[in-house]
Amino acid sequence: MTSLSTNHHITNSSQAAPIGQFLARGALVHQFIVDRETNIVLNFPTDADYVAYNDFYFGETIGRVANRVENASVSSLDGRKVQVGANAPPHALHGGWQGWGKKLWEGPLLFHEDEAQGRKQIIRYRLRSPHGDEGYPGTVDAEVIYTSYIEEVGGLNVSVIEIEHQVQLADGVDDGVEETAVAMTNHSYFNLGPSDTIQGTEAIISTDLYLEATPDGIPTRQVIKHPFISAGNPFVLGATAPVVDNCFVLRSVHPESIGLDTREEALKRAATFHHPVTKLHLEVLTTEPAFQFYTGDYIAVPSGKGIEKREARAGFCVEPGRFVNACNVPEWRGMTILKRGKLYGSRSVYRAWKA
Fold it and tell me: With contact defined as beta carbons under 8 Å apart, do 1 and 274 qualify?
């Protein structure tokens, strides 16, 4: 794989095709353009298609709580057990039946345009999630900020999308709630290959530590070495194997000290990918303590009017976030329990290029 140096500068976005396209439905990533013309994320043509077909969370902003919540309940919020939407019985998955990825967000709002030349485009989506939304207590205000631009690195034009998440309990709302649970991620699926599967993609995962889990994806609370993925060693994604849907850990020491807002933490590389036929590369960095790597084995989108059929392993996901089910694990709770007056935050960076 081509490795990128740290020496870079930002080029004028008017010299290339738009890097990112985003939709208010789910504040989702609709396109991620590399080398001026290649979109590397799975998507649907229209908003109505996302509503009708997106059972697999293509591009969505996931919340209130990403990944799984054991038995669809949070053991204690303001001293009470809270039951939430059990859309993956008996557990909750990706926020419930109508999580944030299914909501219509406010936006896009032009948040900032870097200089008159528009070198960085920064846009924002906002959502007010009411008290009781999918069972979660407290009215919260959530924001997603997308920053897209081109970096020139060693003569390469690198397409970059930065994603920043922020959530707080809403001011001026008298719902009697002092704390709630939050854990966000982005659920884009990537395909770097020349066909409709990820076959032939070379992957490197930066850590071999992961959360051991039960067959239905609930962590046993043990952080152990992965049985077949070694940190920093490349492996190839085949037509049917390896099958991966695990939460990999970037920070395993003293998880009780992981803060609610990680944005000031240094970015860490989660994973890199490369396809030798297309010569496309992807690098994922994050301030988050963990990420879910999923090889898309359960994708099953039927063909329809204007809809391309998508089958198993049509794309892979790298979903930076908190430890799975952290809200129910005493030593992990601090990374997901949002108290009034505090901020939840995270930052992840997706960089892609052709070389």
Answer: yes
Over residues 71-90, the mean pLDDT reads: 98
Q: Is 254 assigned a catalytic role?
A: no
Distance between CA 73 and CA 134 in Å, rounded? 11
Tokens 């204690």 identify what position?
Answer: 76
Chain centroid to CA 123: 17
Terminal-to-terminal C-alpha distance of the chain:
9
Residues near 77 by beta carbon (within 8 Å), at least 6 away in sequence: 137, 177, 179, 180, 181, 337
| Beta carbons of 268 and 206 less than 8 angstroms apart | yes
Q: Which residue has the tokens 């631009």?
A: 149
* pTM more than 0.85: yes
CB-based contacts of 142, cutoff 8 Å, min separation 6? 63, 100, 126, 127, 128, 129, 165, 166, 167, 184
Cβ atoms of residues 331 and 273 within 8 Å = no
Task: Read off the tokens for 351.
Answer: 């960089």
Report how far residue 112's alpha carbon sits from residue 199's, in angstroms, rounded to the nearest whole number.
39
Strand partners, 31: 21
Q: Which of 187, 226, 274, 281 is catalytic?
A: 187
Cα–Cα distance for residue pair 300/296, rounded to 1 Å:
9
What does each C-alpha distance from 179 to 79, 93, 171, 315 come to in angstroms?
10, 20, 13, 36
Q: Is the dihedral of CA 322, 328, 332, 333 positive or negative?
A: positive
Closest CA to 68 of 321, 335, 318, 349: 321
Question: What's the whole-number average pLDDT of the chain?
Answer: 93
Which parts of the chain fold into alpha helices (H)? 47-53
Torsions phi, psi of 328, nearest 5? Answer: -110, 10
The tokens for 205 are: 């995962």
Distance (Å, rounded) from C-alpha 263 to C-alpha 174?
29
Bridge partners of 215?
Answer: none
* Degrees, nearest 5: CA angle 85-190-318: 55
The mean pLDDT value for 245-259 works out to 95
What digits encode the pLDDT tens for the residues 55-78? 999 999 999 999 999 999 999 999
